[in-house]
Amino acid sequence: MATKKKTTPRKKSATKAKAPARKQKKTATGRTAPKGKAPAPKKAPARKKTPGKVPLRAKKKAKLPGAAQQKAGPAENPQAQALARRMAQLLLDKKALDVVILDVRGMTSYADYIVIASGESDRQVSAMAENVHVQLKQGEQPVRALGTEGVETGQWVLLDYGEVVAHLFLADLRAHYDLEGLWADANREKVS
């Protein structure tokens, strides 16, 4: 059996040990730099040019000739506009008051047009909403509401048809909430 040798820790001597010699760094050319001077910075390797390719820095977006340089407004939506006008006419059939179509394209993300109308009683407001639902389901292109709110109470009815939203109010509530004032910047079309 082999025995292990015990090692004792060495004591530090009072004499200074020699500092290890510093290695001299080689420069990009392969020579060693003289003492006291910093090595020369390395140059980036030259890129190979390949025919047919344009350097990244040289790429720019080409301007199309004849392209309009003026600020583009919101995109036209004739289907939504036709739906808003049809809704307004259906509301007038039930004697709605102050029917207004607000063009909110580019101002909001949930609709392109808002139709606002008011009635004289809660029954009239509910009847206006029911007429819009029934008439839009019939015809060549049936349209169904995505959601409705307030039909039971008849004070403020919201009809959501996606790109067109209708708000039907009692006359007092319409003045109180003042949605036309909220959308004061929107183009408006008064339907009578």
Head-to-tail CA distance between termini? 114 Å
State the strand order across the main sheet. 3-4-5-2-1-6
Helix content: 10-25%
Number of helix segments?
A: 4
User: What is the CATH first-level class name of the domain at 78-191?
Assistant: Alpha Beta
The class by helix and strand makeup works out as: alpha+beta
CATH architecture of the domain at 78-191: 2-Layer Sandwich
Oligomer: single chain
Mean pLDDT, to the nearest integer, reads 78
Describe what you observe in this structure.
The protein has about 190 residues and is an alpha+beta fold. The protein has a domain at about 80-190: Beta Polymerase, domain 2, CATH 3.30.460. It is built from 4 helices and 6 strands. It has helices spanning about 80-95, 120-135, 170-175, 180; strands at about 95-105, 115-120, 145-150, 155-160, 165-170, 185-190. The chain has a 6-stranded mixed beta sheet with strand order 3-4-5-2-1-6. The protein is elongated. It starts with about 80 loop residues before the first helix and ends with a strand. The mean pLDDT is about 80.
